[in-house]
Amino acid sequence: MERVSKNGMPVVGMVGGGQLARMTAQAAVALGQTLRVLAVSKDDPAARVTPDLVVGDPDDGAALRELATGCSAVTFDHEGVPQEVLAPLAEAGIPLRPAPSALVHAQDKLVMRTRLAEMGLPVPAFAAVSSPADVTAFGAEHGWPVVLKATRGGYDGRGVWFLRAGGADTDALVADLLDAGTPLLVESAVPMTRELAASIARSPFGQAAAWPVVETLQVDGQCARVTAPAPGLSGDAAARVQELALRIAEELDVVGLMTVELFETAPGEVVVNELAMRPHNSGHWTIEGSVTSQFEQHLRAVLDYPLGATAPVAPVAVMANVLGAAEEPAMSMDERLHHCFARFPDAKVHLYAKDGRPARKIGHVTVLGSSVDAVRERAELAAGWLATATWADGWSAHADDPRKDS
Amino acid sequence: MERVSKNGMPVVGMVGGGQLARMTAQAAVALGQTLRVLAVSKDDPAARVTPDLVVGDPDDGAALRELATGCSAVTFDHEGVPQEVLAPLAEAGIPLRPAPSALVHAQDKLVMRTRLAEMGLPVPAFAAVSSPADVTAFGAEHGWPVVLKATRGGYDGRGVWFLRAGGADTDALVADLLDAGTPLLVESAVPMTRELAASIARSPFGQAAAWPVVETLQVDGQCARVTAPAPGLSGDAAARVQELALRIAEELDVVGLMTVELFETAPGEVVVNELAMRPHNSGHWTIEGSVTSQFEQHLRAVLDYPLGATAPVAPVAVMANVLGAAEEPAMSMDERLHHCFARFPDAKVHLYAKDGRPARKIGHVTVLGSSVDAVRERAELAAGWLATATWADGWSAHADDPRKDS
């Protein structure tokens, strides 16, 4: 069945009304489309910028069916729709992109770890956890510290616990989590030098395109800054990481955007941390920094259009997140934006129209240039100002092991 | 009175729901805003991409007041709102950007010609026309051919008549137009080598920023292709043209975008053709080709934000319009887009979600690169394909005096 809008162009439905859907809606404009969004509230970031809105919960099958009516593809701005909700939709012929059988690898860390290990890809040692004893045994075999993770539902550092040793406290934590119904896995804490991310897009036809591999800086468990391309990563190493991502996408039959989050353990050596199958924070730099943004590319991929060029348009792009301040600044965001623009006429600001609750991602800033240090400083100053109304040192000045607070 | 939306960001209202408003709505997303649009129909290009829509006529005072309620600035995607409609709104304190006293120079060619001549700026010889004898006398004094123009309401080549000589036919045309109530002026046909355009933005504070001067190619009276920067224009000449545009903006107290359309009569020598006070077809290349797009800049200007950097991001940018074909192609736009993307993965396509009536602007394509000829060829092939579903020679191959068909 051909499904098109009144103006003859296809309609994509996106589950979730956050900033990823907001920026996808923005990209849809250029393609002659109007993104249809399923959002919890008409005040959600994406709901504010599209007239084609379905208000409902992402795990409500009826709302999902309403979203899908007339859509050429249904896709996601988060991984929160359970498999048991997706399965009947897929059976009914709704074109879910990615399919539930691929998406599960971004929803369930144990399924993902198991599959990637079977493929022979570099992942940390891991084990399922059904009792405190499983954690103790894993630590005894692989060494402490270990990382305990909720296999489903965690993001931005939530659902991750860094355990330095076994004992009564560890046993109690694990028991409490299991009692609360949290499915768990345990894995080795990988000693790493930094985090990288590799984003690709893949179409149903099987065409795939990779962007340059980027370096991500995590602060308090969530992405704070992205540098593209990853400084100091050799061409060979970058190509190997891109091939790893492309291989995962092909093997899992991913459609749309996929980002592989990686730990670099030695120069050019990586292990896979997480998978995301949607536009990703580590790819926001592509809006200005690449010929094709991840948001346009995601739409092209889920609609089986030929993919766009992924070349960078500047030697360096840095994206810094605007994270809600611990205390609401006295100055409004509108006023802060005035000052930001006055100081940095070249900073590209993206605001998500969200309340500035502490540590919440409320926007980002991208700066392009040729010197990593200079571009980082500008992006971090601008993003820090927008968050706090102070011209503070950027994260570069106090970057730490991102797991220290976990 | 402070006017802000529920999320604390200002609201801009735009009169008109065409592609300029559509692309302004797209730019508003990044600034945390939702553009409010007054459109004639909910199927208009901009109405399809914003949830904040007022349906009504642009010359309906009640609709304009509804649009303005809660807006920090009201601006325009066309010059079609009569002064008699704008005057009471301005008197009521509605923040019109630009003010009617500036906008009139983009609405009435006689007012504009008179004012620019008073400023000592280069304009063609011109005269008001209240009878056929006025045209005959002008031709006798300044020589034939002459150009007859409707002082108000013309655009994209409409309202312009190229008159090779006086006589009965010319008298009859002028008399018929005057009888129909068309206000007219006559001006010398300027021998020119090409057309240029200079776009600037200016804020209420008085800050102004100019983009590189571009070359425009008109076909059948409307913009077909834009090359940025204008090839072969010397740095001195470009600076003089930018200064001319900035001086006009300051003198007329323009707020928002303004484009000066110019005829180049000899290398670096120009006369002013038209003024536009809104985002303009000749500035679409700025979406990908400049640090700040004309659409974001227009929002920044009308809201009195500091303006963004206007530097180009590539040596050459070419924008080619997708103009509705004489006959509807057998292949749908969706299919045409597939083929376009397959051939040109670096072409940036913008579709306006409009029906493809002949010669109607239904989209545009921008390509960046370093060789004028190569970039033009790619942009023209892509735009021509999207228009006609044929890989035809671009306009470069048969560019003519744009006035020949007038």
Mean pLDDT of chain A: 94
- Alpha-beta content class of chain A: alpha+beta
- Rg of chain A (CA only): 21 Å
- Architecture of the largest domain in chain A in CATH? 2-Layer Sandwich
Major beta sheet of chain A, specifics? 9 strands, antiparallel
End-to-end separation of chain A? 48 Å
CATH superfamily caption of the largest domain in chain A: ATP-grasp fold, B domain
Integer tally of domains of chain A: 3
Helix content of chain A: 25-40%
Strand content of chain A: 15-25%
Assembly state of the chains shown? homodimer
The count of helical stretches of chain A stands at: 12
Strand tally of chain A is 17
Greatest interface and its residue counts? A-B, 54 and 55 residues
Give the uncertain stretches of chain A in residue-range form.
399-406
Question: What top-tier CATH class of the largest domain in chain A fits best?
Answer: Alpha Beta
Rough outline of chain A: globular
Encode the helix/strand succession of chain A as letters: EHEEHEHHHEHEEHEEEEEHEEHHEHEEH
CATH topology of the largest domain in chain A: the name is D-amino Acid Aminotransferase, Chain A, domain 1
